[in-house]
Amino acid sequence: MPKIFLADLSDGYEQAIAGALDYITFPGQLRSGLRVAIKPNLTFPEYRPGVMTNPEAVRALVARLSEVGCRVTICEADSGGYNRFSMNEVFRVTGLADMAAEYGARLVNLSYQPSRLIEVSCGLRRLKVPLPRLLVEETDLFITMPVPKVHANTVLSGAIKNQWGVIQDPAERLKLHPYFNAVIYAVNRALPPALVIMDGKYGLNRNGPMRGEPVKLDWLLGADDLYAADRVMAELVGMDWRRVGHLVYYSRRRGAAAWQHIQFNTDYRKFKRARFELRRQWTDWPGWLTFHSRWLAWLGYESAMAKSLHRALYLFREPFY
Q1: Maximum pairwise Cα distance, the chain
Q2: What average pLDDT score do residues 229-253 get?
Q3: What gap in Å lies between CA 98 and CA 138, rounded to an integer?
Q4: Cα–Cα distance measured from residue 157 to residue 260, given in angstroms and rounded to the nearest whole number
Q5: How is 115-144 classified by DSSP, letter by letter?
Q6: Which residues contact 146 (CB under 8 A, 6 or more apart)?
Q7: Would the pTM count as exceeding 0.85?
Q8: DSSP single-letter state for residue 30
Q9: What is d(CA 201, CA 82) in angstroms, rounded to the nearest whole number?
Q10: Which of 29, 94, 132, 178 could form a disulfide with 25 if both were Cys (CB 3.0 to 4.6 A apart)?
């Protein structure tokens, strides 16, 4: 039975995260020497509310895990899609580098870690997807720290989608977009047991993953099940989960939790503080089309025309980065 913990953030992250870990873990699960990997959402070169995980949330989680002697790694890969930027610089600018040093945590750019291939079945296709060995072979517990936000390509982004960022090469992610549902499902299955600490201090409404409107929600969601976390997130922001392709994909797989089986620490309805909606702009449609078509993804990102096509798009819309 999946567990969902919800708490108000008006008093800060420390108490909420401590309560979440107490509720969603079993006795003795967090112990000295446990190898824990934390994956925040760091999709912009500097912190933006509603777009990225608040560094203060990461600090509170690292502090709590350090108290019990866990061996903590904070990890993320280079981001930026077509306009790649270094995660090492993001670690520095957001203060995560200094914080990791303060607590003795390891800070890792996954883009430069050795990888292991996993096989993903997409109809008649068999894809080979590289994942960092650090996560699939050298981690005991994985904690994902997403932000609740609207997404122009996937409708919503949360606990499940946050692991798209563990695919080490941003260019590889672009090539895999047309197979997103199957790939993200396989990626999450390949990772070690996972917990969710969703930073709902702010969410992103109307557009995303970067250009939407930050909305203060002031809640934290903890979960021991990725799918249940995203189902609850969708309910809290007033969006139909059936519009989210990867949630529908998960719901049809064995083991997906039914709503009536979710165990809450409190009445979730009191955390329904905003109603989100997706409002795509016309400049979002080229990205949406390449997300859903392998041929268009090749044309837009890999072909000789890719640079010219992006220059044309940037006449009407500034690059994200």
Answers
A1: 57
A2: 96
A3: 24
A4: 23
A5: EEEEEEEETTEEEEEEEEHHHHHS-SEEEE
A6: 41, 53, 157, 158, 159, 161, 162, 196, 198, 199
A7: yes
A8: S
A9: 29
A10: 29
Residue pair 111/162 in contact by the 8 Å Cβ criterion = no
Summarised one tens digit per residue, pLDDT across range 13-45 is: 999 999 999 999 999 999 999 999 999 999 989
Neighbours of 255 (CB within 10 A): 8
Q: Locate 163 and state its tokens.
A: 């692991």
Q: Record the tokens describing residue 25, joined without a space.
A: 């873990």
| Tens-place pLDDT, residues 157-192 | 999 999 999 999 988 999 999 999 999 999 999 999
Amino acid at 241: W
Measured CA distances, 129 to 77, 79, 88, 104 (Å): 15, 17, 23, 31
The DSSP letter of residue 258 is P
Helix, strand or coil for residue 224? coil
Neighbours of 1 (CB within 10 A): 9
Residue 33 in tokens: 């020497």
DSSP letter assigned to residue 195: E
Domain 3-279 listed as CATH 2.40.160? no
Tell me the per-residue pLDDT of 92-147, one tens digit each, with 9 for 90 and over: 999 999 999 999 999 999 999 999 999 999 888 899 999 999 999 999 999 999 99
DSSP letter string over 89-117?
A: HHHHHTTHHHHHHHHT-EEEEGGGS-EEE
Single out the residue of 267, 263, 269, 299 nearest to residue 178, CA to CA: 299
Q: Percentage of the chain surpassing pLDDT 70?
A: 94
Report which secondary-structure segment, H or E, holds 220: strand 213-223
